Amino acid sequence: MNITRNAGANILQDESAKPNVAQPSSESLLIVDDNPDNRDMLARRLKRAGYGVAEAENGPDALRLIAEQNFTLVLLDIMMPGMSGIEVLKTVRTEHSPSKLPVIMVSALTESNEVAEALNLGANDYITKPLDFPVAIARIKMQVTRKRSEEAIRKSEERYALAAKGANEGLWDWDIAANHIEYSPEWKAILGYENDSIGDSTEAWFSRIHEEDRIRVESDLSSSLADKQQSQFVSEYRIQHKSRDYRWAVSRATIVRSPEGAPIRIVGSLTDITKTKAFDTLTGLPNRLLFVEDLSDVVRDCASKPLKRFALLFLDLDRFKIVNDSLGHVIGDRLLEQVSRRLEGSIRLSKEREKPDKVARFGLARFGGDEFAILLSEIKDPNDAVLVAMRVLDRIRAPFQLDNREVFINVSIGIAIGDSLYESPTEILRDADTAMYRAKSAGGGRYHVFDEAMRTDAQERLELENDLRQAIQNRELTPFFQPKVELKTGNVIGFEVLLRWHHPKFGEISPGKFIPIAEETGLIVPIGAWVLEQACHKIQQWQNKFTIDPPLTMAVNVSVKQLLHPEFLATVRRVLAETAIPPSSLSLEITESVVFQESANVIHILDSLKELGIHLEVDDFGTGYSSLNRLDRYPFDSIKIDRSFVARMGTDKRSEDIIQGIVSLAKMLHLGLVAEGIEDGKNAELLASIGCTHGQGYYFSKAIAANEIELELEKHQSSGTWQPGKVLSDRP
Ligand code: C2E
Ligand code: MG
Ligand code: MG
């Protein structure tokens, strides 16, 4: 055996190739010839033309090399001692088809019979000795190109076969010269279209690519096409489905080129990788899956390092649902995108301090909906996390410009500090979530750091949830009643029913604590119906006992969950029928934030209630997502000024101004006014003087039990008026 070995390899790239020749390619040729001079000369020319070359001096060596290596093409001498070229060819063709391993016969001019036989046996071409090198090289090149093209087509055919199996892969075949593209039915199906409902144009594809990805995909494609060495194209991007939302897709393609290297055709696939894609399509941020994966790494890493600390920040936008419902989903989406960019901005500083190789994956994720999470994989002390939280709060607080309007949104942040005691990502996520919940129930727009006490709180909450289910049957719930007075006279005109829960183990639990639990669990529906019944029965009795004109009123708080419940109207009708009270003496209080859920449904229900003759009030006015001009679209009769403004009246000029503003607004819209939470007489007087007609608060009376109300009513029965607390005119 005599194989030329250069640099210890059979396949040789000629390092000394002259600069004006073709680029070294990965194509490797095998020269089979018994004459070393012939081999040597041809080998040198081919290397100069950029091919890798191996040599064999006889048939058996050639077959062995072919079995061992992956040659692009074989140059096979016909006339050799021992095993002839024809015999070698026969054996080769039992294993390798002409398209898989092209063979070019090298013959003497006199061997035309053998050439014919070889061509019949599957030789691809022949060249004659003495060799005309330019012709030989051109023929070799042609065979190589043909082989590559056929491979490309075969691959695409294989893809077709694959695509027929999996519906999440589609195919496209783009004839570049004719600028004609064809998509397979599967390709169209991935985007949600029927076979004939999408055109055969490149625009049908590119126009659907997400605007942030399109330029990148197009320039990747054109540079792949321009690079003659490039036979593959791969690109990932977001593409719009018929449903208008974006899917993550990957396109993999093979470029078929002319012998000169010009792209002729590009054949490829389209695969929907949304599920496997670890990024959120809307914001481009890592999604929950990827984040939790990273978090697991950090938790695991920390388990063995008792001194290491990390932090998890769990974020939830405040009142996002209201923005989304009132401004529409398109704006809601844009807001989420802008929030993401601001979050990125606020954690960039801290990310830089982390290990740079981790920066790409660590940090920020969208958890779904309006939830985000931040992972600080290494912190020195909890303050690092608090600083990030403060920066986030600061950035989110600034108004967002959406559709030519300013939108304000807040975020609640729960922080959990990770140490070696955490065993799984679930545990720390749960704690950060608990802390977030705490921040939210404290009014939102703030952060809260998880501590041990909260773990107990979370357990207690779970316990409360279970106990609340039994509370009605166990007679632990009691309606209390707070008098509502006319400020000018101090006379009681009605009541607001406020629920009290006496828990066998925890004692008195405030509605501020259990009403949200009731709302979340849906228990508010039966509980609310029960409160309504109790309150209406009481007011029926009291109206009989205490006959004044207009009759005493009863206000009942209604949560949005109750309002939207399909049975709600029927329940109200039933209770009104059972008690026969004038509908106008029943008032329903609905918290301001609910009002601005611009769902046609809410307005519809309110209209129906209004038709029954019921009085409707906006509760906690001034705290919600105020858009005052909306108010006149709703059938409200009066506004309750939130007690936080009333409480700050004496000390804070701004609160007074806000109240003044609400009073003017109410007058303009012909709405009644009630101030809640009046705790001292000075404020009562001030409120009356600026035009607020009614009030409630500890200054007059706290919410008290029904029997206490009855005692008072009896006491004042003869006078026909009841003036709880100090009457305004009594004061100096
Ligand atoms: P709300 O409807 O705004 O009720 C007024 C709250 O302010 C009551 O708290 C009341 O006790 C308190 N309050 C009244 N006067 C004063 C005052 O002078 N100073 C201060 N600091 N507070 C005063 P409560 O009873 O804890 O109720 C809290 C909230 O729970 C209520 O706010 C209401 O939204 C909800 N709620 C209570 N009962 C029910 C119910 O039966 N159904 C529903 N859906 N929600 C209820
Ligand atoms: Mg109320
Ligand atoms: Mg209120």
Give a quick precis of the structure.
With 732 residues, the chain is α/β, with parallel strands linked by helices. The strands form 5 sheets. It has an 8-stranded mixed β-barrel, surrounded by 4 helices. Strands 2-1-3-4-5 form a 5-stranded parallel β-sheet, with helices on both faces. The protein has a 5-stranded antiparallel β-sheet with strand order 7-6-10-9-8, with helices on both faces. Strand 4, helix 4 (112-120) and strand 5 (125-129) form a beta-alpha-beta unit.
Characterize the structure shown.
The chain is an alpha/beta fold. Helices cover 43% and strands 23% of the residues. The chain has 25 helices and 27 strands. The strands form five sheets. It has an eight-stranded mixed barrel, surrounded by four helices. The chain has a five-stranded parallel sheet with strand order 2-1-3-4-5, with helices on both faces. Helix 4 (112-120) links the parallel strand 4 (103-108) and strand 5 (125-129). Helix 2 (59-68) runs parallel beside helix 3, helix 10 packs antiparallel against helix 11 and helix 17 runs parallel beside helix 19 (568-579). It starts with 27 loop residues before the first strand and ends in a 17-residue tail after the last helix. 37% of the residues are buried. The model is unreliable at 1-24, 350-362 and 727-732 (pLDDT under 50). It binds ligand C2E and magnesium ion (2 copies). The site of one magnesium ion (MG) has 4 residues, from loops. One magnesium ion (MG) binds at residues 496, 557, 589, 619.
